[in-house]
Amino acid sequence: MTVIRTFKYGGITIPPKRLPIEYPVMTAFLPTDALIPLRQHSGAPARRVVEVGESIREGQLVGKAAGAGSSNIHSPIPGIVTSIQRLPDLQGGQVEALAVALEGSFDRLGRKPETFPWKGMSKHQILRTIADKGVVEDDGSGTPLFERLHDPKGTRGACVLVISCLESDPWNSSGLAILKERGEAIREGIAILQRGLSPVRTLIAVDDPESPFLDRPARTEPGDEGPSVEAVLLEPRYPQDLPALLKEALSGKKAPSEEMIVLTVGTVASVYDAVALNRPQIERYITVTGDAVKTPGILRARIGTSIGELLEECGGFSSAPECIVLNGPFRGSAVADLDFPILKTTKSVVALTSAETHRHRTTACLRCGRCILACPMRLDPSRLFKCIVRRQVAEAVSEGLGACTECGSCAYLCPARLPLVQAFSLARKGAFKAGAAGGKTA
Amino acid sequence: MKSNRQGVLVSAAPFIHVRESTASLMLLIITCLLPSLAWSVFLFGSDVLVIVGVSVASAMAAEAGLSLVRRPGTLMDGTALLTGLLIGFSMPPSVPLYIPILSSVFAIAVVKWSFGGLGANWMNPAMAGVVFSHVNWPGALNSWKAPRFLTGVDGVSSVTPLGLLRSASENVEGPPMDLLREAGYRISSLDKALTARLNEGILSGLGARLPEGYVDLALGIRPGSLGEMAGLFLLAGSIILVARRVVRWEIPAACALVFGILVRLFGTGSEPLFSGDVLFAFFTGSFLLVTFFCATDPSTSPMSRPGLLLYGSGVGALIFLFRRYGAGSEGSAYAVIIMNCLVSLLDSALPAARSRRRSVASQGVGN
Ligand code: SF4
Ligand code: SF4
Known about the structure:
The complex is a heterodimer of chains A (442) and B (367).
Chain A: E1 25-27, E2 33-37, E3 47-48, E4 55-56, E5 61-64, E6 73-74, E7 79-88, E8 94-102, H1 123-132, H2 145-149, E9 159-164, H3 174-181, H4 183-197, E10 201-206, E11 230-233, H5 243-251, E12 259-264, H6 265-275, E13 283-289, E14 297-302, H7 307-313, E15 323-326, E16 333-335, E17 348-352, H8 354-357, H9 370-374, H10 381-389, H11 393-398, H12 409-413, H13 420-433
Parallel strand pairs in A: 1-14, 9-10, 9-12, 10-11, 13-17
Antiparallel strand pairs in A: 2-8, 3-5, 4-7, 5-6, 7-8, 13-14, 15-16, 15-17
Chain B: E1 9-10, H1 22-44, H2 47-69, H3 79-89, H4 98-112, H5 125-136, H6 161-168, H7 176-182, H8 189-206, H9 214-219, H10 231-243, H11 250-266, H12 278-282, H13 287-294, H14 305-325, H15 332-341, H16 343-349, H17 351-363
The structure holds iron/sulfur cluster (SF4) (2 copies).
């Protein structure tokens, strides 16, 4: 571990706001009323398979994957479907959601989990189970994991499996909590993925020198070593969790010939749950933090729990929050409604004070160039913005708009507080609809 | 069930920002100029405050008036305040008050707002205001006053070192300091004492010797305009600005380098070839003020590194040209506004910056 690596250009280093590793992880109360949106993944909403008034068990399938990008959804609690509501969707628009009132007994909670003998499973069976249990990626995209791993035509060459222990933003501590609480599950989950993917190498990317995985990345029971796993220490820098940048950081100068498949630790834990414990994805580690929260903490919560309940368990607000953000201040969405539920893609609830947000009125661009130095995709955000404001979206696209990852580094640093990311996001949506876009790949 | 669930998700990420805002950056620049102002008040008396005060007030009044009509709310971003301050700083100590007032109003109303205000500046408003005053009232802008410590100098008719050098060097050659002394330029007793101290203390150990006169220049104990006096304070302020990245280092670095080399080669006017007095050139005229606080205004300088380096070099070269061969002894403001006009060219035409972008554009989404 001589050189601490990172990606080459741009990005920002700010002191991490994450909770220290010795922070206890609490188990959140079970929700008496769970709200389960039928879209918690990237694709189309799942097809509802239960009716109002129906009584359901813990972990029962309530929504069935409907096409590409869609994923199965299971009930986090036993109970009765009391109503169907409409909730705002993180991707825009609205989506159907089941309201479930807690009733009946838990099939899993409180019982010792049985370990399923996954070593006898074939590659195909492993992937099938991952799809059945509704495992979606934990990187914020919500891509069904099955679709990432699946290789129906057998066209995938040699691949490198990269397990990312990097947090999605400096406020998030959930990854660290999972590492700490579920170390063995993750080591086993990696072994399952190695079975499912047969990678030529497996790397663990870590940006915390205290991470338990640095010294002992792989399982070490005698006779059960399995394929090897190497840990790589990276410099903590935002937005290094983006796969493109993570690849750049890991591979250094020489571009790797193998495909890199990047999965987060959260995803690996879900894989273990699905395959080894036969458990659907119904639980999340949620970081509840921000200066407006009285006692920040990491909570293990069931999907469908409202963010208001989690905030209450953390002592409520110590001061009036300026905004409450899901999934981190850099890339997340603000919610105004504390009844909004935890989804499969939720990582954190951050209540920010105005001392943290540093809002100011927007001024004209100062041409200070900070955004250019910050953009890890080497774009010129001020120029893109200018093009978009002048309605020259095609010009912006030729300047590289399609490569923007909407990481927010530019807008974070902009002293003029220009709404750079919003402009890029809107322009991309509009531009791609008009078919004028170049460069968007799958 | 609940009607307030409509559209509660707001996507306006990022929700956090650095502390710095336009106003706070301007405030930092202004703060870095305040020591110079204080020093100037000490040297010339409280008249300085009146001149700078009316200059700032009229700039802000013009901004307030125009922003009411054009785009509300730009008064508090601090840019007008800075413009007024810089114009005040460029005035000689005995200037009639209508000159800074009219120059500030011209800078804001005509130069800044004719193209739509901050962000659309085509030249640095403060520098344009200074040029405006030089063009209209050349006499008033060339009458100087001796600062504190310089005793026995005839108050109103005193000249700046650069001006004096110009007339003294018409047919003599020699180091500028020697010529000045022969022409009757006075050196303060403070300078004599400090130079002696320095020479005995630090410099003798290094085998060097500082001639008399330079301490006066560095401390601004010479006739000159209000803000350019305290070279050392300006340098200190600029270090803060560069460290905080309010100012891109490329501009002052390139400017000082090119200016320094040219001065070394061709001198300020009196020296023989290849033995110009660089120190003298740096600490006379408004070189430091302009290089660090005016040429570096981000909204009128390029954005790419090659652009910044070229722009800085251009400013340095032009300041040299105007000073050495121009009609007046001082042409820094002209140098800046000429380079300002070339910025959009520098920004769009530089191949290095563009090819980088194009290669990204063809890469597509990065993951
Ligand atoms: S949001 Fe887009 S333009 Fe801004 S820094 Fe990130 S990738 Fe670059
Ligand atoms: S950071 Fe903001 S003010 Fe500075 S150049 Fe970029 S867009 Fe303009």
